[in-house]
Amino acid sequence: MNPAITDWRGKRVWLMGASSGIGAALARELLARGARVALSARKESMLHELAGTAPDAADALVLPCDAAHPASLAQACACVIDRWGGVDVAIYLAADYQPMRAWELDLDVASRMIDINLGGAIAFAACLMPCLLRQGQGQLAFVASVAGYGGLPKSLIYGPTKAALINFAETLYLDLAPKGIGVRVINPGFVATPLTAGNDFSMPALITPEQAAQAILKGYAGTAFEIDFPRRFTRPMKLLSLLPYRWYFPLVRRITGL
What mean pLDDT comes out for the span 238-248? Predict the structure, then answer.
């Protein structure tokens, strides 16, 4: 469904959300494999620290920007294209997560999650589209979540934004595959990052950001649209989402204890 990538040497990669967690781990691995990596996030000092790990300083490009501000994303995108003449792989990893139950619904917090998790992803695709179409090649990817498979307690806003992101990626794929442009959606389970550190519930099959980065690059070595991991968790979650609601709701309550 997508062109496989096994050799990252010289590949021009833009990571939005590279300052910590999966993004930082993926950046380190890509740099070690010889890719040229543009690093974007709000925290510039962390990006410079990450760039310092590059075997060749010329391979790391620090471009701080805010995923919630389309103009900031567009400026960073223009810098990447101006410096490298194009982009081979662009991955949107920026995300915001705040656990929320129905009786805790906060419109300001919800709006922020929507702006970053979905609005930022759309703006990311929009600023890259002219370049990708001109090239007639390249790949876009969006890090969503298994939380997008179905409704879950404490995922009142986060889950719907990830479900919408999965749908957005699916539709992009349908439009762009005939034009030679690849699209992937990345659906992790629980990963030990600053976003999940505040969770006060059990996180089955929890993995490290480094394990997540390895799983993503393993996925890129294949052609599948979806890269999901760890499979021991994502497969049961997929099956659960296919059940009729009369079974789905009781099972989710039993599994989560919430």
Answer: 95
Average pLDDT estimate for 160-168: 98
Contact status, residue 244 vs residue 144, Cβ threshold 8 Å:
no
| Separation between Cα atoms, residue 25 and residue 193, nearest integer Å | 11
CA distance 220 to 30: 12
Are 225 and 173 spatial neighbours (Cβ–Cβ below 8 Å)? yes
d(CA 114, CA 219): 27
| Count of CA atoms in the C-beta half-sphere (13 A) of 228 | 18
The pLDDT assigned to 10 comes to 97
What pTM does this model have?
Answer: 0.96
Rounded distance between C-alpha atoms, residue 120 and residue 141, angstroms: 13
DSSP run (H or E) holding 227: strand 226-229
Strand partners, 100: 155
**What does R_g of the chain's alpha carbons equal in angstroms?**
18
Q: Extract the tokens encoding 224.
A: 């599948």
Looking at the DSSP bridge assignments, the partners of residue 226 are 185
| Bridge partners, residue 48, by sequence | none
For residues 18 and 10, give the distance between their C-alpha atoms in angstroms, rounded to a whole number. Answer: 19
Kindly state the average pLDDT of the residues 223-238. Answer: 96
Decide: 148 and 188 in contact? Cβ < 8 Å: no
Burial state string for 27-39 with b = 16 or more CB within 10 A and e = fewer than 16: bbbbbebebbbbb
Q: Which two tokens stand for residue 142?
A: 């969006």
Q: How far is CA 12 from CA 83, 90, 142, 255, in A?
A: 10, 8, 17, 42
**Closest of 195, 94, 104, 93 to residue 156, by C-alpha:** 104
